[in-house]
Amino acid sequence: MSNFSFKNKKFPIKLVPTFLLTVAVSFLMSFFSIIFLQDSKQFLDLKNYDVEDIEYEFQTLLENSSFDELIIIDEVEQEECEYFAQSGSFRTFAAASSQLEELKKIGYSTVIENVASQNGFNYKVVIGPFSNRSQTNNARENLRRLNMDSLEIKSCIKFTNEST
Predict the structure, then answer these.
(1) Fold category of 75-163 in CATH
(2) Spatial distance between the Cα atoms of 107 and 100, rounded to a whole number of angstroms
(3) Least confident of 17-31, 38-52, 89-103, 149-163
């Protein structure tokens, strides 16, 4: 590797031209900014501008001090969720039944759902319901150990309670 220094003639940047170029560019930028960015005194006087007064409603309410009693109704939205694991989707009922029997031997409660799909898979095998996501993930991990892919399915029902 070549040795870079100011004394070496191979140094790629010359000091004097670089310094002169830097001074010239900074002088030109300063000069043009002073000329083009001057503040005019007409912009400094705010009386030249018509500004509308803003009236806030809460200010008049506080001045009148007349408050209506508000009845606040809290709507509590709750949801109950059940979790399922889909262990497979099959084109034939026989293939889905075969997987269902394997899963019943392991101890899972399974059902076969008939679905209409564009890709030709009409039967899916679903395990569950599980009460929380942790149980679903445990079941999916057990299926993974048995070389079965699975998907998590979350089914929730929302309902509201009104309390005063």
Answers:
(1) Alpha-Beta Plaits (3.30.70)
(2) 11
(3) 38-52
